[in-house]
Design goal:
The structure holds 2 protein chains of 2 kinds.
Chain A: H1 2-37, E1 40-43, E2 46-52, H2 56-62, H3 65-98, H4 103-115, H5 118-129, H6 136-140, H7 150-177, H8 182-190, H9 195-223, H10 227-232, H11 242-252, H12 256-289
Antiparallel strand pairs in A: 1-2
Helix pairs in contact in A: 1-12, 3-7, 3-9, 4-7, 5-7, 7-9, 8-9, 9-12, 11-12
Chain B: H1 6-36, H2 55-62, H3 65-97, H4 103-114, H5 119-132, H6 138-162, H7 167-174, H8 179-190, H9 192-208, H10 211-216, H11 225-230, H12 242-262, H13 264-272
Helix pairs in contact in B: 1-12, 2-12, 3-6, 3-9, 4-6, 6-9, 7-8, 9-13
The chains are: A mainly alpha, B mainly alpha.
Chain lengths: 292, 278
């Protein structure tokens, strides 16, 4: 018996070893490395000036307007797109859940935005809003160069994000809908509850864990928004997000020290969001989040 | 069933269906239509092309850059998928089926990685790859894709594995099979749909990536299609080659759309697994 247990233990570790190694080498190690690099003045264009400078990189980032501006942009984009996605995701989930005919076709087309490459989606909407190529101005009777001003550029970016990710949100919500017992809805209907009351009083409370998981996923995802902004504005017109800032400092300017500090700050941002969610809704999250 | 008045219900949900389909298809039709427009009609601001021309497709395939990028995209995504699903399968089986200390930690660690913004490690990886010679190689992209897809694979596979009829596995082990034999001969065939689902989702993830592709590559050696499209330059530096970009977009979108349409049920099951199952 004991022999068997230790065999099982060894096999378990053996089977997990490759995955764990990959995760450690490609994610855990680079984070620690970023933490270490962030304490140095280290610019690849001036490698001889490399020196340990403690927290100076963080000081210069946290006192620069660029960082706070990018963080503000990221939060604006995240909050607006996730709330609108939740708002639109519900009707979409209801339609997918209730639809009587073309069920397959409807569910399949809903997956299209999810399956399309983000870069392609961003380009499609960019061209649609383009003043010379696009059809949007002709449709609305406007002559707007949408991506050349901050707020109209945000509008296009948010629209692209919503289009691309609402179906994912709706799928998670739909899975929550299937947990609502049909009898309960029928009983409420017999008792005279109208559709809105049934939705607010019965469906939403039962779905709460599913809603929270969907919102947490999408919030963390939206916080790292990069592709859409890169394609549509490259961060111009004051639309730079924290991910773009990190990319620009690191890959474009080749400033490893400052870039690493930006990375670490983004990482801390993600941690804060996760902790807020888990603290705020911990009980319902673990109830819904654990596939047990 | 849904509404007291059946006809009303049909009309209501039917309208809903139409709106949903229009919503999902609009940008797709638009980019297809752009790719088929003649270059002289590109600025006509119409949604549909007046005349259909395949010129853009001919140009991108006669150029060196796009076919190379397409080959890179396919090769890198397929290899990453195979690796991620294989490693994920081993780990998920161990987590669901075997008693060993640390399995909860592994699952939690994998989930934490799934939430992880890739931009955080892009710099360190860039610097590491530069020193070990992985910059601008297939392997340099395969490693991060495989790793970032692992949590997804482990998560989906373990959610599916929990639902599988494991008695067959027990029966095989009672009959004297070792855990490893039971795994290969009983579990692998049973798990095929789950594995396939995980593979599709991992493939879409790798196919879609942009940040790693533009940061860790610089030439046709390993540059994938999303990265190439973003930096396409036409005959003139000042004008975006819209038609060519649209054609390239259609070429990389169509295969994935077909996969999604065929395996719609598996994908829905995979995306929602674990997230909601109580």
């Amino acid at each position: 018996m004991n022999q068997k247990q230790s065999n099982e233990r060894r096999l378990g570790w053996l089977l997990c070893a490759p995955a764990v190694t990959a995760l450690l080498v490609v994610t855990a190690y680079p984070i620690l490395y970023a933490l270490w690099l962030s304490l140095f003045r280290y610019d690849l264009r001036f490698p001889d000036q490399r020196a340990f400078i403690g927290l100076d990189n963080y000081v210069s980032i946290l006192t620069s307007e660029v960082w706070w501006h990018a963080l503000g942009n990221t939060l604006i984009l995240t909050i607006i797109s996730v709330s609108l996605e939740l708002l639109l995701g519900f009707p979409l989930a209801l339609i997918m859940h209730h639809t009587l005919f073309w069920r397959r076709a409807v569910r399949a087309t809903t997956l299209i935005p999810y399956a399309i490459i983000t870069v392609v989606a961003a380009l499609a909407w960019k061209f649609a809003f383009d003043p010379t190529i696009g059809f949007v101005n002709a449709l609305l009777g406007t002559e707007q160069a949408w991506l050349t001003q901050r707020w109209s550029a945000f509008l296009v970016i948010i629209l692209t994000e919503i289009w691309k990710t609402t179906p994912f949100m709706a799928l998670l919500l739909m899975a929550g809908l299937t947990l609502v017992p049909h009898d309960l809805i029928q009983a409420a209907r017999v008792d005279g509850a109208n559709a809105w009351q049934r939705f607010i009083k019965i469906i939403v409370p039962i779905m709460k864990p599913a809603i929270l998981v969907a919102v947490l996923f999408r919030t963390l995802d939206a916080f790292r928004i990069f592709d859409t902004v890169f394609i549509q504005t490259r961060g111009a017109q004051g639309t730079e997000t924290v991910s773009l800032l990190g990319y620009n400092t690191f890959i474009v300017s080749l400033n490893l020290g400052l870039g690493s500090a930006v990375s670490v700050l983004i990482f801390i941002g993600v941690l804060i969001i996760s902790v807020l969610f888990i603290k705020g809704f911990g009980a319902s999250l673990t109830k819904g989040g654990n596939a047990e | 069933m849904m509404m007291r008045n059946d006809l009303m219900g049909r009309i209501f949900w039917g309208m809903g269906n139409l709106i949903v389909m229009a919503y999902a298809l609009l940008p797709v039709l638009w980019i297809v239509s752009l790719s088929l427009k003649q270059s002289s009609h590109l600025n006509d601001q119409r949604f549909f092309p007046q005349t259909i021309s395949f010129e853009n497709y001919r140009i991108i395939f006669s150029d060196m850059q796009f076919p190379a990028a397409l080959w890179n995209s396919i090769g890198i995504a397929v290899i990453s998928t195979l690796l991620a699903v294989t490693l994920g399968m081993f780990a998920a089986y161990a987590i669901v089926r075997l008693e060993f200390p640390g399995r909860r930690l592994i699952l939690a660690g994998a989930l934490a990685t799934a939430m992880f913004p890739s931009v955080v490690i892009i710099g360190p990886i860039f610097n590491m790859w530069r020193t070990v010679g992985l910059f601008d190689t297939w392997l340099g992209l395969i490693l991060p894709y495989m790793t970032f897809a692992l949590p997804l694979a482990i998560w989906i596979l373990s959610a599916f594995f929990r639902e599988m009829p494991w008695d067959l596995d027990k029966a095989a082990r009672v009959d004297g099979a070792t855990p490893l034999q039971a795994f290969i001969w009983v579990i692998v065939p049973l798990a095929a749909p789950a594995v396939f689902t995980a593979a599709i989702l991992v493939f879409i993830f790798a196919w879609n990536d942009f940040l790693f592709a533009i940061s860790l590559t610089s030439t046709n050696n390993a540059r994938t299609v999303p990265a190439v499209i973003a930096f396409f330059t036409g005959s003139s530096r000042f004008e975006l080659p819209t038609g060519l970009i649209a054609a390239a977009s259609v070429v990389i979108t169509v295969p994935v759309m077909i996969i999604v349409l065929i395996f719609q049920r598996l994908i829905v099951a995979g995306l929602t697994s674990g997230a909601v199952k109580g």
